[in-house]
Amino acid sequence: MIIRPSLAALAVAAALPAAHxxxxxxxxxLLAAAPTEQPVVVVTATRQAQRADELIASIDLIDREEIERxxxxxxxxxxxxxxxxxISSNGGPGKTSSLYLRGANANHTILLIDGVxxxxxxxxxxxxxxxxxxxxxxxEILRGPASALYGADAIGGVIQIFTKRGEGPALVxxxxxxxxxxxxxxxxxxxxxxxxxxxxxxxAEYNTSGVSARKGPYPAYDPTPWDPxxxxxxxxxxxxxxxxxxxxxFRSRSLGGNIGYTVAPGHELxxxxxxxxxxxWYDGGGYNAVGGADVxxxxxxxxxxxxxxxxxxxxxxxxxxVAQSKDESxxxxxxxxxxxxxDQILWQNDVKLPVGxxxxxxxxxxxxxxxxTTYTVKSRDISSFMAGWNAAIDKHLLQANLRxxxxxxxxxxxxxxxxxxxxxxxxxxxxxxxxxxxxxxxxNDLYYIDSGGNHGNPDLKxxxxxxxxxxxxxxxxxxxxxxxxxxxxxxxxxxWAALPPTYAYVxxxxxxxxxxxxxxxxxxxxxxxxxxxxxxxxxxxxxxxxRQLARRAREAARAGVTRSFGKLTLGSEVLxxxxxxxxxxxxxxxxxxxxxxxxxHYKLDRDWRLEARVNNLFDKDYELAKGYNTLGTxxxxxxxxxxx
Length: 644
Description:
Structural class: mainly beta
Number of strands: 38
Distance between the termini: 33 Å
Largest sheet: 22 strands, antiparallel, barrel
Radius of gyration: 24 Å
Shape: globular
Oligomer: single chain
Low-confidence stretches: 1-36, 233-237
């Protein structure tokens, strides 16, 4: 684990007294550990608020300052710049994308928003490409198997997004800006507290013309129909490649907020709401609507949660949450509809013991789908019991988690996580852990079928993982460094592939996949410079066929430098990736690439700040998926207001 707090965060921390026990879903709390530097408190690694320097897990924190530096765009854009993360994308902003955490499949990572599971029941993964940064206060990324904490699907890890909470006098925020490719972004918010009430509300809109999703060159237009005997098109066919050469835009509108009421000291009720509506235009393979109009889809992501937090005893905190999340996608100019709904109940109890902290909980999850595709089974439910314990005893750090999931389709599954850490010196420690994970096949994996012959397989088994990792971590005097080795064996791995002679897409289940590798990370305050770097060396392999898993590079690296000159802050980022393969057969190669990004902030006064960002400075032409475009040089300038 390596936490990279910003310069501003460290400055604030130095001015704070020792912190009280934190709520699992409050903003990060900075604890007094040294006169000039404070470790952050994080939640996702153990489901409890815990000091980062006492964690065994590999976790990264993205704070609000880093989010604001990222410019406009989605959560996926920012996550792509983090250690252990690789992505693929079928075009520009808003297009269908996948995130691979530690080389695991895209549907091996759970997305939580304020503790609530979000994502598609049919595809089994969240729409990170449509989740706007404007609604996010901070992000925690837990790398490694976490089924013992969060249940099915956490083979690669967990990404948890936290939204703004209000406290103190009213804080007003506003932002507006514009860039090339027809990009605009506006947003505003207010947060604060008065008496027993706390509140926060944010709204934003993001628009971009983007680029053409599909990548040319395109074949010549041949207005001839399909000739079955020749296996090609002839006269009358409406295919027109020019229809794919236009820009495919994206728009998102979001509203998020919460309101809390303190019934009595230690007893709080809170209602959380978030709704994101987006429209995404994409290429129809030359078969777009008459007149050349693009096809596309309208999507909705929605989260509603009611939470009661109660301190039942000085050492006992109870959290009861009832929540619902939706992931809806409806095609315009076609009839495709995929609407997912997840109803969730959580009761978690955190107990401070004479030695360590105990966590006991119950979760119930009901997943349902309403779709234009006929699924043999349209719903399933999972009931789960979980327990965890963690402690810091002298030089020893300990963590143990156990979870039992009962799935209405796949029966019972028990997963565990055991970790141990030892402080060699106050600044240097060694950690080791072993954990198991699993994933039930998605409804698409099992039952999907369409007119093109693509189809699922109802006989698929659940995927199962076993991960071992060791790490050496250093943390002192503003310098943090870590070296981690992990080895994750996954049996019954599911990957979709086009099979001859029809080349319809079907899910294939390999006997064994093995993802192992090294993670190296470093961050430091060197004089006036904030420096960070990471290197991922990955071997993501389908051992049954001795092939590299699709769309995952064996090497990736990131580096960043930031410096402030009075009111002016300048920064640069370099991202590099090795070659990958676009398909499971390893016949379509995607070349390696490197990108350079720049950003600058200038304080006009106490409340106003100018911001500028340049992505892909040298206009690098590269691919994240075969046949699909990525963005060239992007320039964005904006102004931000924050009342102080």
